């Protein structure tokens, strides 16, 4: 669908259309199906970027080209937007009549660098007009504008962008029916994948029975953590990674809550020392049952991780995660500092 001709055969107009299509595919959440084709298309198109935009005066097109190239790591110059300024050096007021162009410029401005001063001006200019524009356009575009003002596409979760954009694109009169159907099917597939994962991690969580083995100090966040992980990797091929990361962040949550919300100074120090050694501290046998459970839970999770990735020869990834958990030196120092403060405080 994306590569009807080889990149080398693309003219400026064809290359431009391909880049605009890449924007649609990215926004609809299906770009991951065409990673190699997108890479080749953008590499060729960027070589001809100056010729491609030389006679282009549509705000929407320039903004989308900028957004796509910057999103995929190509440093398209922000000077391309100088053509939209008047003799006074300000963005022309007539641009404010172009709702889609203003929205795309607003989104493009979120990919600016610290030296793209013109994009700072673009962000201020678009924000000044977008609220009023939202009340003047069709409902589906108005929703897109209002949502973008709340959180730009660049900072939003890709799966949430896709959910919103599929609905928007369906109401566009010039939408491609094949692309729309493909996007809907892809979104349904992702939903089913996430539900399957959530069923697995909630089953794992319930079987651990934290409620009967720990005092009620911990946060019950398994669904929230899985949703958070989706924000990092939304594609279906990362299903195993999402499950492992959800478990990893559950370990971090339980560990943090144990230190911050419940454990005494001596208990916290014992757990920190045990984690640092990745083996029970000499006094672990005398600690409360809840603390023994927390430590055993952490070790068991990482043992499972080693089993899952060991067959792939990726022990190094588990080692890095263990180092993250066992890096408790700062915590131990804080405990010692707190103890010294308590000893130095005058008795009441």
Automatic annotation (TrEMBL):
<dbReference type="GO" id="GO:0016114">
    <property type="term" value="P:terpenoid biosynthetic process"/>
</dbReference>
<dbReference type="Pfam" id="PF03936">
    <property type="entry name" value="Terpene_synth_C"/>
</dbReference>
<dbReference type="GO" id="GO:0010333">
    <property type="term" value="F:terpene synthase activity"/>
</dbReference>
<dbReference type="InterPro" id="IPR005630">
    <property type="entry name" value="Terpene_synthase_metal-bd"/>
</dbReference>
<feature type="domain" description="Terpene synthase metal-binding">
    <location>
        <begin position="206"/>
        <end position="326"/>
    </location>
</feature>
<dbReference type="GO" id="GO:0000287">
    <property type="term" value="F:magnesium ion binding"/>
</dbReference>
<dbReference type="Pfam" id="PF01397">
    <property type="entry name" value="Terpene_synth"/>
</dbReference>
<dbReference type="InterPro" id="IPR050148">
    <property type="entry name" value="Terpene_synthase-like"/>
</dbReference>
<keyword id="KW-0456">Lyase</keyword>
<dbReference type="InterPro" id="IPR008930">
    <property type="entry name" value="Terpenoid_cyclase/PrenylTrfase"/>
</dbReference>
<dbReference type="InterPro" id="IPR008949">
    <property type="entry name" value="Isoprenoid_synthase_dom_sf"/>
</dbReference>
<keyword id="KW-0464">Manganese</keyword>
<keyword id="KW-0460">Magnesium</keyword>
<comment type="similarity">
    <text>Belongs to the terpene synthase family. Tpsa subfamily.</text>
</comment>
<keyword id="KW-0479">Metal-binding</keyword>
<dbReference type="InterPro" id="IPR001906">
    <property type="entry name" value="Terpene_synth_N"/>
</dbReference>
<feature type="domain" description="Terpene synthase N-terminal">
    <location>
        <begin position="13"/>
        <end position="149"/>
    </location>
</feature>
<protein>
    <submittedName>
        <fullName>BnaC07g50220D protein</fullName>
    </submittedName>
</protein>
<dbReference type="InterPro" id="IPR036965">
    <property type="entry name" value="Terpene_synth_N_sf"/>
</dbReference>
